[in-house]
Amino acid sequence: MTVATQRIATHLRDAILGGALGPGDRVRQEDVAQQLGASRLPVREALQMLAGEGLIENEPNKGARVPRLSMHEVDVIYRMREQLEPLALAESLPELDDSDLYRLTELQDEIERGTDVHGFLELDREFHLLTYAGCKIEHLSATVHRLWNSTQYYRRAFVRISGPSRMRVVNAEHRLIIDAMFRRDEIDAGRFVSGHIRRTRIELGNHPEVFGEKA
After folding, report:
1. Using one digit for the tens of pLDDT, what is the confidence trace for 33-67?
2. Does pLDDT of 1 surpass 80?
3. How far apart are CA 88 and CA 81, in angstroms?
4. Roughly what angle, to the nearest 10 degrees, separates helices 117-131 and 98-113?
5. Lowest-pLDDT range, 46-55, 80-89, 126-135, 205-214?
6. Could you state, in order of their start, the residue ranges of all structural domains in the chain?
7. At what angle do helices 138-150 and 152-182 cross, to 10 degrees?
8. Exposure letters 25-43 (e unless 16+ CB within 10 A, then b)
9. What is the dihedral of CA 169, 172, 178, 182, to 10 degrees?
């Protein structure tokens, strides 16, 4: 991978995860190349990389775009996460040391001090992906990351509509996960993670407008 390819991939990844590019937005090679002062080859390579991460899809004769998911597709992805993330955590936990667990506590402390939507999403993403960081099963780890990437837009929309009452629940659930991980109890930790994901899935299902669908 060239430096130019990595630079372009980082730029586009940040734009998608940060919300500057949303579902359905086209990503034209010539526009990206001109904007970043690059040739089309590293742009093409970057788009292929991001497609593997679930952030870009390539449509025949139309080019690349940020995937747009239906409410049903997101529901299924969240159901997949409910099953896979407890498994990833169980694989990860034995490989994490106390410094990793204290970092989780620091992240949660920062979340509870309050931040905007963008700040919360970054902290929340770091929190959860750190809990899976010790997983050595590459297929499982890559799948979890891909599912997180593909639902980032909908997670942002959920945070915006959920309000302070939901944040109290999120904070409580995070604390339960941390406590279980300090106790090295993968069963409790997995159960709390699954419930955490399930509640988000159910609440998202109450807001079809997030997906451009009618109630």
Report:
1. 999 999 989 999 999 999 999 999 988 777 899 99
2. no
3. 10
4. 160
5. 205-214
6. 3-65, 71-211
7. 130
8. eebebeebbeebebeeebb
9. -150
CA distances from 4 to 15, 28, 42, 86, 149 (A): 17, 17, 6, 36, 22
CATH 1.10.10.350 fits 3-65, yes or no: no
How far is residue 5's CA from residue 26's CA, in Å, rounded to a whole number? 19
Record the tokens describing residue 120, joined without a space: 């919360």
Tell me if 178 sits within 8 A of 102, measured CB to CB.
no
Residue pair 71/208 in contact (Cβ under 8 Å)? The answer is yes
Q: Pick left, alpha or beta for residue 156 (phi over 0 → left; psi -120 to 50 → alpha; otherwise beta).
A: alpha
Question: Taking 90 as the threshold, does the pLDDT of residue 214 lie above it?
Answer: no
- Which token pair is 33? 């190349």
CATH class of 71-211: mainly alpha
Q: What is the pLDDT of residues 129-176, one digit of tens each?
A: 999 999 999 999 999 999 999 998 888 888 888 777 788 999 999 999
